[in-house]
């Protein structure tokens, strides 16, 4: 199964302040990960400040692929996640440094020998993950939750992975918001490290 391409419309203002379309068409940055074939990142937009600067500035979705949102910013993307394979589950942990390096955040990987999934990772952000099509399992340190179209995960900087235990790819929409751990959470995470 392949998913339809993403159609993006970007608006702005002309010199007189009239609302206009500044870009329309396919996304300029769509990247399949070499370390995990079938995993495709579709970069839609990002902001680099809060409040976000409203302008006709250059498209922030071009450039290198980066997992977390910009400091004080946001990121929106679609991710196509292929089914887990036996080979991947057996040898995935050894390749995850490559995968997270490809998405610009090698430090995000938290995988250890006893991790429940080879893609365990954490970012200091609030992430809204919405299942658009397919099925997925949210894997946490001590629990799992089945997700289907319409499921929304509010992921608050936790150690997690997305496992696709179905026979078909899953497409998720993610909105990532830069965050900072509460001091009590930061202290607990430091003790676990």
Automatic annotation (TrEMBL):
Give the matching CDD domains. cupin_BLL6423-like
Question: What InterPro entries would the database entry show?
Answer: Cupin_2, OryJ/VirC-like, RmlC-like_jellyroll, RmlC_Cupin_sf
- Signal peptide start and end residues: none
According to the entry, every stretch annotated as the Cupin type-2 domain falls at 119-175
Name the record gives this protein: Cupin domain-containing protein
**To which species is this protein native?**
Duganella flavida
């Amino acid at each position: 199964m392949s998913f339809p391409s993403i159609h993006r419309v970007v608006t702005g203002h002309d010199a007189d302040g009239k609302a206009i379309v500044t870009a329309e068409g396919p996304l300029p940055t769509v990247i399949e990960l070499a370390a995990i074939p079938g995993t495709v990142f579709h970069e839609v937009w990002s902001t680099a400040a809060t409040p976000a600067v409203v302008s006709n500035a250059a498209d922030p979705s071009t450039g290198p692929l980066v997992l977390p949102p910009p400091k004080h910013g946001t990121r929106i993307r679609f991710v196509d996640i292929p089914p887990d394979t036996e080979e991947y589950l057996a040898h995935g942990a050894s390749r995850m440094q490559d995968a997270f390096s490809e998405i610009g955040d090698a430090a995000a990987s938290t995988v250890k020998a006893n991790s429940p999934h080879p893609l365990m990772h954490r970012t200091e952000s609030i992430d809204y993950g919405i299942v658009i099509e397919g099925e997925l399992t949210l894997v946490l340190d001590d629990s799992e939750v089945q997700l289907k179209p319409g499921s929304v995960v509010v992921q608050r900087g936790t150690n997690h992975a997305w496992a696709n235990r179905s026979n078909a790819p899953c497409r998720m929409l993610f909105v990532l918001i830069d965050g900072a751990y509460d001091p009590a959470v930061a202290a607990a995470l430091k003790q676990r490290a």
